[in-house]
Specification:
This protein is α+β, with helices and mostly antiparallel strands and 171 residues long. 16% of the residues lie in helices and 25% in strands. The longest helix is centred in the N-terminal third of the chain and has 8 residues. The N and C termini lie far apart (43 Å). Bound molecules: calcium ion. Calcium ion (CA) binds next to loops.
Amino acid sequence: MTPNIDTVCLRRAFSLPKQLIPHLGLKQIHALSIQGNYELRIDLEDFDNSTAYAQYGTFGVGLFSVDPDDDGYPLTVGEYSGNAGDALLKHNRMKFTTKDKDNDHSENNCASFYHGAWWYRNCHTSNLNGQYLRGQHTSYADGIEWSSWTGWQYSLKFSEMKIRPTREESK
Ligand SMILES: [Ca+2]
């Protein structure tokens, strides 16, 4: 079976600090995230140069998968903080859907429908691999959306997802 997970989309989604790791696909994110506890920070910017962020204290991809490729790289996120609002927790435990691999809960393919690639449910509250539609758009939810901050008809200028190991806590 060819997974056909579109790593190009993930390169856009997971643009980590360039000096560290230039581009990561799902496979690499998985390999990284099973090595310890990771947190996720998402930075966003609109066309008025306003910025906002969402942080998740737990993050992983395919954490509980025997074969993550076969399993669709399910997302694990939790513990939201930030000022962009949470638009990702509803995607917790969802598998990654691309135009050529439908893993979502919709009778349609959410990736085709909303022109992205994401851990779609039915379908999304965020769509960071959506189209670059430059701010307000008349179409619905098919841009780079973070609904809790700018709704479903505003395609953001910038988005970045970064992960890093959480600090060891003495428990
Ligand atoms: Ca579907």
